[in-house]
Design goal:
Elements (H helix, E strand, L loop, with lengths): L11 H13 L16 H10 L9 E3 L5 H12 L10 E3 L14 E5 L12 E5 L4 E4 L7 E4 L1
Parallel strand pairs: 1-6
Antiparallel strand pairs: 2-3, 3-4, 4-5, 5-6
Keywords: Hydrolase, Nuclease
Protein name: Ribonuclease N
InterPro entries: N1-like, Ribonuclease/ribotoxin
Length: 148
């Protein structure tokens, strides 16, 4: 009489697939190689697929993840104002060259209120002529492309 397989033995195609999944999942995988610390492969791949070419390699953030004041400024931009500061809508010169290069007049900036600040603060939304949106919270030292 042949020996009976253990009821706990893994055999057959289903078991092989389960074993493969258990081996691959803990290590993660990313077809783009963009997984960062704490990112799942799916998150990294989704972010890479959603980051538009106009972002110029800048990190991207969904509009919903911006501070409430930045979302309020975006709503004002969408409506065409009125804006709370005279400087809102003025040409952004991109002198720091943090944004992709374009001719002067391509970008315009808008103040994002900062609670507790007496002046305009450091936060801005910068828009491009073709609908690009960027956010900075450190007065133009760094930007994130805003995804809508």
């Amino acid at each position: 009489m042949p020996p009976r397989p253990s009821p706990h033995a893994f055999t057959g195609p289903l078991s092989a697939g389960l074993l493969l999944c258990l081996t691959v999942l803990p290590t993660g995988c990313s077809p783009t190689g963009t997984a960062g610390p704490g990112d799942s492969a799916a998150t990294a791949a989704s972010r890479a697929a959603r980051t538009p070419s106009w972002a110029g390699g800048l990190p991207a953030v969904p509009a919903a993840a911006l501070p409430a004041e930045a979302r309020a400024t975006l709503a004002l931009v969408d409506r065409g104002g009125p804006f709370p500061y005279a400087e809102d809508g003025s040409v952004f010169g991109n002198f720091e060259r943090e944004l992709p290069g374009h001719a002067r007049g391509y970008y315009h900036e808008y103040t994002v209120r900062t609670p507790g600040e007496r002046d305009r603060g450091a936060r801005r939304i910068v828009t491009g002529r073709h609908g690009e949106i960027f956010y900075t919270d450190d007065h133009y030292n760094s930007f994130k492309a805003v995804l809508r």
